[in-house]
C-alpha cells in the first residue's frame, strides 16, 4: 500500500501535462515567390487576389503577410525578381552590344524568345500587369520602369549620333520610343497567340527601317 507521503512525492515528480501547441506551417520562401511570379504573370496585378495568391503559393494568408507584407509589397518583390530572372535582356544588351542598333536587335530577339517560351506564361509580366491597373502607386511604378528602358535606349542612340555611327538627323527619342512600342506590342501579341516565327518577322521589319549612315 502506498502512503499519502509517497503519493505526493510521485505527483511532484511527474511532468506536467499540456495540450500540444499548433505550429505555423513552414514553407520555402523562394518556391512560394516563384509561384507568386507565375500568378501575377498569368493574371496581372489587379485581377490577382490575395486568395488567388495563397492558393497558387500553397500558403495561408497569415504566412503570406508575415513573409512578404501585403499584396502590393509582394508584387514589388515579384517585379524585382522577375526582371532579374526573366527580363534582364534589355539591360544586358545595352551593356554589352557595341552599338545601339545591335542592342535593339538583340533585345527584340531575346524578347521574342522570352515572350513565347512554352514553359511560362506568354508575354511580359510588367506589360501585362499594367493593363487595367487601378492602383496608382503600382501603375506609376510600372510606367516608370517602361520609361526608364526607353530612356536607356535613347541615351545609347544619342551616343551613336554623336560619334557618327548614326546620321546626324536621327530622331533619338522617336527611335527609342519605337523600340519600346515593339517590346510592349510583341508582349501583347504573344499573349494573343502569336508564334515565335511571327514575332521574329516583326523584328526583321523593325531592323530594316533602322537608319544607317
UniProtKB/TrEMBL annotation:
Keywords: DNA-binding, Transcription, Transcription regulation. PROSITE patterns: HTH_TETR_1, HTH_TETR_2. The keyword DNA-binding applies. The keyword Membrane does not apply. InterPro entries: DNA-bd_HTH_TetR-type_CS, Homeodomain-like_sf, HTH_TetR, Tet_transcr_reg_TetR-rel_C_sf. It comes from Streptomyces ferrugineus. Coiled coil: none annotated. Residues 1-27 are annotated as: Disordered. Residues 49-68 bind DNA. This is TetR/AcrR family transcriptional regulator. Residues 26-86 form the HTH tetR-type domain. GO terms for molecular function: DNA binding.
